[in-house]
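User: Predict structure, ligand adenosine-2'-5'-diphosphate.
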Amino acid sequence: MGFKVAIVGATGNVGREMLNILAERDFPADEVVALASSRSLNTEVSFGDRILKVKNLDNYDFSGTDICLMSAGGAVSLKYSPKIAQQGCVVIDNSSAYRYESDVPLIVPEVNPDAISGFTKRNIIANPNCSTAQLVVALKPLHDYAKIKRVVISTYQSVSGAGKDGMDELFNQTRAVFVADPIESKKFTKRIAFNVIPHIDTFMEDGYTKEEWKVLAETKKILDPSIRVTCTAVRVPVFIGHSESVNIEFEREITADEARDILREAPGCLVIDKHENGGYMTPYECAGEDATYISRIREDATVENGLNIWVVSDNLRKGAALNAIQIAELLVNRGLIKAAKAA
Ligand code: A2P
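Assistant: Predicted complex:
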């Protein structure tokens, strides 16, 4: 007997990718339900070679549904995730609404799978921010080898991280530049076409943005609270794929060659690091791929035990949909969840 899985936000960037990945990985689902707002009622989304009609979240009864993959933004999660969880359905929540609560596990399966057992307190498991997911996949094996003291990250984040409206805005502005139409900015605070914007999410009192704070808080929660982390998060005119320039300071010595060998063996990582033209990964090439790609591995001679690396991944996949489905697979493979119908 398989599971009944609901996807909330099934018409969005991440929701559609969740449907693709569930089908690709043959997740043991007997039934998959696509949910979105009343605006999308009866629109169609693809699930493998099938078409699903979208249902309205507002009047959907979750009793009998085993797993809900929630990706409709923080406000929808705050309103619905606890109600869904109370109906006995495990919520894997892609928003930031529950990530920092001590009784909600925040999971990247390659990094902290054992923390998942804590989900029974609230029946909610949080999926990390897209920038954090790929970062910790690359940091974990290096941390295990040489213990990370401090990390400095600059992100280059694609517009798909801001949802389908973000992708439309980049497309429309780019077109407008070529045909000399006026440029409209609604989703982003400044023009994104042929530009970069050092501002993602809201500003905090200390001058950092919420996106930058999320990378810091989540890396500590998932990997190790003793690591010092600082971040600058930047939106770039790329449709899919987040890139990160990462400077790492370790407690023990680690050479670039050692780091390369460790990352080659690490789960979820793929090293592409040739010192020649094109011998590195770019976001355009990672779209549709599952791996976290690591390139440009170099020693940083300005600090003791320092390395620089370049990390690239599909933000809609490892940064969101894939990680959520890996969490669902972890629940199933560890026998932490039984199909409601079978019970
Ligand atoms: P809808 O298409 O009906 O608005 P993205 O992040 O790519 O913009 O996608 C957001 C997803 O969240 C969409 O599927 C959207 O559905 C869904 N969504 C937004 N608000 C709600 C809501 N109030 N109830 C249910 N789903 C929502």
